[in-house]
Amino acid sequence: NSAQYNLARILGPALAGVIMAGWSISACFIINAASFAAMVISLFFIKPMAIEKKEIRIDNIFRNIGDGLKFIFGKPVLLMPILFLFIAATFAMNHSVLIPVYSEKVLGQAETGYGFLMSMGGVGALAGALTMAVVSKGGVKNVFVFVFPLIVGVLVAAVGFTNIYALAAASIAV
Question: Is the pLDDT of residue 133 over 90?
């Protein structure tokens, strides 16, 4: 599932860049909308199963949230991955907002350069997913949990200091 998602992250932006350069950005939106047609049509053929509704009691939602947070903070095995995910989601995953302007104004790239630059995040994610699948057979290694996020953070920051397309692409891929 992760490999399919990341493959789409590679092919989608690259193909979109080529379509934008060859036709227009409107063509990208039309093709993207059409790609959802089969999914939407298939939803009409799904016959949902009847399920029994169970009564859900919520005493105090804020107390429940507090209990959940106390549980997480009391378990370092849960806390550390959640903290790293929080940091990565806050700082590293927002690159898609900045890359269009960065690609054009700093790197001097047109649509295809932008599309391939966006694909580099998918290349890195796919490589990371495959690496984790191979290496973590005996359990997740601490280097993946503690060192790699720091490397990613440094490389994301490094992207802002370069105007070399290949270096920016490689930093985004990692």
Answer: no
SS3 39: helix
Which uninterrupted H or E stretch holds 171? helix 165-173
Contact (Cβ atoms closer than 8 angstroms) between residue 10 and residue 122: yes
Separation of alpha carbons 11 and 3, rounded Å:
12
Contact (CB, 8 A) for 37 and 44: no
Alpha-carbon gap, residue 3 to 1, rounded angstroms: 5
The first and second tokens of residue 126, run together, are: 């796919």
104: its two tokens: 């054009």
Note the pLDDT tens digit of each residue in 138-160.
766 666 767 777 777 787 778 88
DSSP string covering 2-13: HHHHHHHHHHHH
Q: Could you give the CA distance from residue 25 to residue 19 in angstroms, rounded to a whole number?
A: 7
Q: Which residue has the tokens 């049509």?
A: 41
What is the rounded radius of gyration, in angstroms, for the C-alpha atoms of the chain?
A: 21
The answer to whether the CB of 120 falls within 8 A of the CB of 173 is yes
Above 70 in pLDDT, residue 92?
no
Tell me which residue of 140, 122, 134, 135 sits closest to 84, measured CA to CA. 140
CB atoms within 10 A of CB 12: 17
User: Position of tokens 């391939």?
Assistant: 116
